[in-house]
Amino acid sequence: GRGNTIEFWLKKEAFSATNRREVVLDVWSSSSLPDQPSYGRLTIELDQQNQSAGKSPFVITYKSGSTGVHQAQVGTVHLATSASDNSWHHYAFTIQNTGSSLGIKTYVDGKLNHSILTGSSVGHMNKSLIGVVGALATGKAGRGQSEDPPYNTAGNSNLGWGKLSGSMDEF
Question: Which of 5, 62, 66, 109 is the most buried (most CB within 10 A)?
Answer without folding.
Answer: 62
